[in-house]
Amino acid sequence: MDIDTPSVNLVWVEMNYAERLSKVATELEKDSSWNNIIIKSCNPSGQVFIELAVPMPSNCRSTIILDFELALKKSIDDAITVWNEPLGDKSSLRRLRGVVVKS
C-alpha cells in the first residue's frame, strides 16, 4: 500500500518565520501539559523543532510530543511534524577530558 506524504499548504509556506512561530506558540499555550516544551524553530517545510525544558522518561516524553503534534496537525496543517532536539551531554567531567558523546 502506497501512501503519499502530505505536503504543507501554501498558507504555511508563505508565512514569515514570526507568523509560523506565533501560530505554534498559540497552540502551545492551550494545554498546560505542554509547559515544558520550548519551540526552537518552525520551518516552511512543516518541521517544528522543540526542546524539553526538563528531562523526563521516554514514555511521558513521547506522549506529550505526539499529543502536541496532533494538535498542530488539527489546528494548523496536517503535514506538520514535531522533532525533539535531544539534550546535550551535561557532564562537565567528560567535557574536560575531551570526550564527545554522539547521539
How would you characterize this protein structure?
The chain has 103 residues and is α+β, with helices and mostly antiparallel strands. The protein has a single domain (10-97), classed as 2-Layer Sandwich (GMP Synthetase, Chain A, domain 3). Helix content is 40%, strand content 16%. The chain has helices at residues 10-14, 17-28, 58-75, 92-97, and strands spanning 37-42, 47-52, 81-84. A 3-stranded mixed β-sheet has the order 1-2-3. The protein starts with 9 loop residues before the first helix and ends in a 6-residue tail after the last helix. The model has no long low-confidence stretch (mean pLDDT 87).
What's the short story on this structure?
The protein has four helices and three strands; from the N terminus they run H-H-E-E-H-E-H. It has helices at 10-14, 17-28, 58-75, 92-97, and strands at 37-42, 47-52, 81-84.
Q: Assign the CATH architecture.
A: 2-Layer Sandwich
CATH topology, what is it called?
GMP Synthetase, Chain A, domain 3
- SS strand fraction: 15-25%
Rg over alpha carbons: 16 Å
What's the tally of helices?
Answer: 4
What is the average per-residue confidence, as pLDDT, rounded to a whole number?
A: 87
End-to-end Cα distance:
33 Å
**Which range best describes the helical content: under 10%, 10-25%, 25-40%, 40-55%, 55-70% or over 70%?**
25-40%
> Which outline best applies?
globular
The largest pleated sheet is described as: 3 strands, mixed
Low-confidence stretches are none
Helix/sheet category = alpha+beta
In total, how many domains does the architecture comprise?
Answer: 1
CATH class: Alpha Beta
Strand order, largest beta sheet = 1-2-3
